[in-house]
Amino acid sequence: MNGFSLAWRSVIRKPIKSVLLFVTVFTISLLLLSGMSSGKATIQMQDNTRQAIGAGLLLEENEADRHRRMDELSGQLDHKEGSAGGYHQEKIIINGVESWRTWTDNSFETLLVEDIEKIASTEGIADYNISTVTTAARPVDFIRIEDEDVDQYSDFGGVSLIGNKDMSMDSNFLSGNAFITDGRMIKEGEKDVCAISAELADKNQLEIGCRIRFGNCRDKEDDMTYEAEVVGIYQVNQPIAPYMFGDTYRSENIIFTDLDFPEKVDGKAGDPLYEKAYFKIADVNDYESVKKSVMGADIAWERYDLIDNNGNMNTLSANFNEMEKYSKILVWVISGASLIILFLIFLFWMKSRNREIGIMLSMGTAKIRILAQIMTEALMIAAVAMLISFSAAPKVSGLTADYLVEQQIQSAEEQDLLDEGKVAFSYEKSEQNVVGVQAEITLGMLIQDAMGITLFITISVCVSGIAILKRNPKDILLDL
């Protein structure tokens, strides 16, 4: 009778031991597959979140290069009064002391449209937005929001305008902090339109379709005014961080406009001051490659800072970015515990079969053959257990992944409670909702699971068998 037949007879002859090993291997297999799939489920979920929220790149002026350019232009003027490249300097006398006054105009400070358009034409960029610097404007036929307890003498007494090429990609709306409550956002290409805060609308009884006028805030004698139609009313979760001190720049007095409106009100039509540009990436899975392509655009990069503008995406996935690590730890813990449990099971097997092993050794059966038979028995049971576990694994893995996600969310909520009152946010963090977790069982996972369990069984049988097989038949039989 061959070894396989002997192993099979031994399996069915000792059903309790066989069932014990079957249940153990089945459980181990399920746990290992659940741990591995939970890690993969996390990555898939983050990718889905990234795709839903989107990701982009933010272009801003590099402050160090700005100072470098100012020094360079000042050197060109050779300590003389004059202007060069949007930089100006003049000699002034203060209390009899000679000094220099320097300033820059919009042409020096603004992001260059031609550079923005070069970046926007990069393959993988779906759309882009340009935002103006926050511009003070004088309200003409409406009243702004003021703090009555604050001296307004040093304040401009105005409101602040922010122009956008595409209002939906303004950072305040991308973050989820600002949202439209009535009307709509400003569309690209529209002229002389605006969106005001709900507080400003309530104070002045303004509605969608009303027209409000603005004047130059720095020149109160300038009678020229500019009119804009209210097309949207917005609300914020948390006050927008002010651009500067004073009620002119407070959150309720911020008015979003079309891209060209602020420069007209400021008396600088045709001379815009663009503060930042946002580039939306079409497919977040190509994020790194698109960013690399953008960096290859033929522009003076030393003039700019290119920022990974995916903070909102990171906020939404922050609760889950440790799950893959936890999944790996779970797999290692399961592996260690499984090895110990299997060793104890096979140690019990060996001791319960002392008589059988002693007789086989007395009959001249080689120790390696006895060990091979026990190994064959174990692998036969394990093979059946693993095959059945493979069919049950998808359901169990999904439950495991859901549990880990819930634990991460609960942990994040507890941390938020601990941080409450300690940290002041400039905007309300986006509400995070998990709509589902996909835990996929791949062929690679099945192979790893089968190989791992086979290795555990091999190690356990060999180690537990040493204690018995190193003894001679006479000593084994005398212990019975």
Low-confidence residue ranges? 42-53, 311-319, 419-436
**Care to count the β-strands?**
14
Q: Give the C-alpha Rg.
A: 36 Å
Q: Mean of the pLDDT scores?
A: 81
What does the model show?
With 480 residues, this protein is α+β, with helices and mostly antiparallel strands. The protein has two domains: 3-53 and 319-478, no CATH class; 56-76 and 84-314, no CATH class. Helices cover 49% and strands 19% of the residues. A six-stranded mixed barrel has the order 6-7-12-9-11-10. A four-stranded antiparallel sheet has the order 5-13-1-14. A three-stranded antiparallel sheet has the order 2-3-4. A hairpin with a 2-residue loop joins β2 and β3 (87-94). α1 crosses α13 (367-419), α2 packs antiparallel against α11 and α11 (323-352) runs parallel beside α14.
Main attributes?
single chain, 480 residues, alpha+beta, 4-stranded antiparallel β-sheet, 14 strands, 19% strand
